[in-house]
Structures are given as C-alpha cells and as structure tokens.
Amino acid sequence: MSEAVQTFTPQAFHRQAHDALGNPQIRDNFRRAMDGLMSKRRDVFSDWDLETLRELGANIRQRALAKLPDLLEQLEANCEANGIRVHWATDGDEACRIIRDICESHDARAVIKGKSMVSEEMHLNAHLEKAGIEALESDLGEYLVQLNQQTPSHIIMPAIHLNTDEISEIMHTNTGTERTRDVDYMTAAARQQLRERFMAADVGVSGVNFAVAETGTLCLVENEGNGRMTTTVPPVHIAVTGIEKVVEQLRDVPPLYALLTRSATGQHVTTYFNMISGPRKANEHDGPREVHLVLVDNGRTSIYQDDELLDTLRCIRCGACMNHCPVYTRVGGHTYGTTYPGPIGSILMPHMLGLEATKDLPTASSLCGACGEVCPVKIPIPDLLVRLRKESVGQGRGNVQGAGVKRSSKEMAAWKSFQWLATHPAAWRRSTALAGKLQKWLPSSIGPWTDHRSAPKPARASLHALVKRHRRGESES
After folding, report:
1. Strands (E) located in 56-182
2. What's CA 432's distance to the chain center, in Å?
3. Domain covering 1-47+314-406, topology
4. How far apart are CA 11 and CA 357, in angstroms?
5. Which residues of the chain are in CATH 3.40.50.10420 domains?
6. Superfamily for 56-298?
7. Is the Cβ–Cβ distance between 329 and 341 less than 8 Å?
8. Residues of the chain with confidence (pLDDT) below 70
C-alpha cells in the first residue's frame, strides 16, 4: 500500500512507530521542523513573564469551563441576536448531518473549507462527498494532504511531514505544476488554484478558535487569508467548533491569542485575526448572507463531568506539546492513527474512541514532562497520562470507556517486583549493589523496550556509596 493511501489506526501504534523509526526521511523532516519551532517559541517569549501569562491563560480557561453550561446558552442567545443561526450536535455524525442539510437546502455542490480540526474529528469531507458535495481544503497544508489522500500530521501545520521535493511531486501529479524546488512558484500556483475555487464555492466552512459568549463573536486565527476568504466570499458560512471553545468575555481573548500564536508558530501575532459577529448587513458590500454555528459535543460532556479529565478541555490547540515531545518528534503524527496526535491526543482520544481502542497512546510518552512545561494553559498532561496508564490495567478510576485492559502476567509480576523494591530501601540498596557487580552478565536485550534503545547498565557503585568513599578519603578500586 502506498503511503498516500495508507491507513493508520491507534490499535497499530507500535507497528506504525516501528515503521516510522525506520524511515530516515520522516525523522529528518520532523527533526528540522521541530527544532525551528522550539527555537522560535523560546525567542518570542524571551521578553515576557511567561509563567504569569500561562497562569492567566489557565485561569481564563478554567473560569470558562466552570461556567460552561451558562456560557453556551449565553453564546447561543447573543449569536442568534446577531443573526447567526446556532445548531447543537451530540456527536460527529449529527454535526455532519446538520452541515449536509444546510448545504442541500441551498443546492450546494461545492464547499470550500478553512482549517478545522473538529471537521477532521467528525470526518466531514468524506460525509459530504458521499452526499455528492465536493469539500475542498483551502489551508495550504490541508490542501496538500488532501491532494495526497492523507490526514493532517500536526494540528497547526498539517503537512509538516512533507519536504519540498515531496510537495513538488504531489502538486505535479495532482495539478500539473512543474517539478521544482521553487517554493514561491509552488505557493503562487496553489494560490491561483484555490482562488478560483473560492469564487465558485456555494458554502464556506471554518473552525473557531474562540467563541465569545458576551458578544456572540466567533474569532478565527490564521496566517494565509484562506480563513477570511472562506468566511466572506461564499454566500453561506458554517462555523463548526467543539463546545469547549467558548470564553466568557471579549477581554479574555487577547491573553489567549498571545499564548496561542507564540506557542504555536513563534509569532507575536498572526497575519489575520477574524472576528465574525453576523451575516452581511444591508449597507455592507461583502460577507455571507447566512452564518451558521454548529456546536459539537462528541464526548466532551463526559470529559466535563470528571474533575481531573476536565483539564483536557482547556486546550487551545497550539500544538506546543507536540513540538517539544521526543516521541512525536521521532515518529510523526500519522503514527498515532488519530485526529489529535502527540501528548494532547494521547489524553484526549481515549475519551472519544474508548481506552480499549487507544490503550497504547498513553504509553507513547517518556514522561519527561516537556509537554506540561510548555502548555500555555498549564494542562497537567503527564499526570493525566499516568492516570490513563493506570486505567488501562484496571487500577484507575475507570471513568474512561474501555478501561480495564489487562497486561500480561509476566509484565505485571515485573512491575509488582519493582514496586516492592522501590518501597523497601534496604532491599533496593542490596539489589542495586548486586546488579552493579553483575553488570557484565546482564542481558543487552529487554524485550521490545530495547528495539530502539540501549539496555541500561547499572553503575559499579551507587552515588551514595561514592559519596561515602569520598568522605572517608578512599579512592575507587
């Protein structure tokens, strides 16, 4: 099966990770991209009190979630007052049906889409195509992966897994452009192709970064202008978003915007910041005649009812946790087989798909803590990963669908032994001292763990022992 049409699933994470680790092109593409993103984020926050800003962002999101039911009703009332028609969807299928019905009520056959991870989550494009409605992605990265019959590999930069030569080949094969490494030429060609589709589209579909309950305003953050074209050129605009994207007041947006742009791409501001408060008015020359807002649950209310897992709903979809994750950086987004990859996907997708189907994702982490340290709204991702790991072996609180997946008896026995040693200091000291003396005879392979790692070798003497020797003035033999 070619990479362009290869199917990735969370159940096959380990095999997919093995394949990705064996692909030097994937590792090189991601390493280059992530190094640049981490450097830009570090530099752009250099003159800011980052921890204070993160605390403010976390408090804003926590306050909104604490009032979520009331804020959603307020958002609906103010959007309706502004002329925006609000629809509620229990899951992705219902959201797709709502959008399809709106399209069919206007005899729409061509839809142009701005970037929206929620639409990816609900597989909107495939649903519309089954109804005979073409849905074309207008974000350049999304456009490329759609041409290549792939899904996004990153929530901010969908085509981050592709290099210049691969992009050139995709465009040549699908659109007839010349094979070239001239980025300006390829960008101009894509712009011309998409501009024609904007003008011909019957409906525009976009995501929402922040939905302001106080004013009934939909905020959209972007760099390419495709979001503004999607929401203003077609006669009908449909915005789709998860219910957690609501914020209480308009003044809550600037701090979150500052955190989002800097954490995602290392920018002070994005090229475009759109604020949509209704359809075209009588004295206006452009804009859609109708604006619809589809609020999608899709498992979010079940997350909301858990006082720990609730923290996942703070996410502002910046992707910083992915950019700093040593696992994601080496295997890429497709390896996870889910809409949301990386650390945030590993704690979010088990609630959406069930833990049985995603049991390997919480273990796709070294627990180094980088994801938690860079999260702009301070989601305790490592803590939630540990909780999901416990639930996967039947030791957690059991609030995630499919919890209780059992490990092998050998693995459980090994962990029980380690637990006992780690909680009995005298036995731990004796066992580690013995391991140091027997290090020559210890195995170099420890099952799958050492497929891509070197087996650890115990030191001949522990740090405590070396300190004691030093204090006694003894030299190591």
Report:
1. 84-89, 110-113, 134-137
2. 40
3. Fumarate Reductase Iron-sulfur Protein; Chain B, domain 2 (1.10.1060)
4. 6
5. 56-298
6. NagB/RpiA/CoA transferase-like (3.40.50.10420)
7. no
8. 1-5, 395-407, 447-449, 452, 474-477
Tokens of 132: 């005979």
DSSP for 142-177, written as a single string: HHHHHHTT---SSSS-TTTT--HHHHHHHHHHHH-P
Contact yes or no for 456/439 (Cβ under 8 A): no
In this structure, what DSSP letter does residue 179 have? P
DSSP 296-341: E-TTHHHHHTSTTGGGGGG-----HHHHT-HHHHHH-SGGG-SSS-
CA distance 176 to 183: 16
Read off the pLDDT of residues 157-208 as tens digits, 9 standing for 90 and up: 999 999 999 999 999 999 999 999 999 999 999 999 999 999 999 999 999 9
113-152 per-position pLDDT tens digit: 999 999 999 999 999 999 999 999 999 999 999 999 999 9
Choose among 123, 130, 128: nearest CA to 101.
128
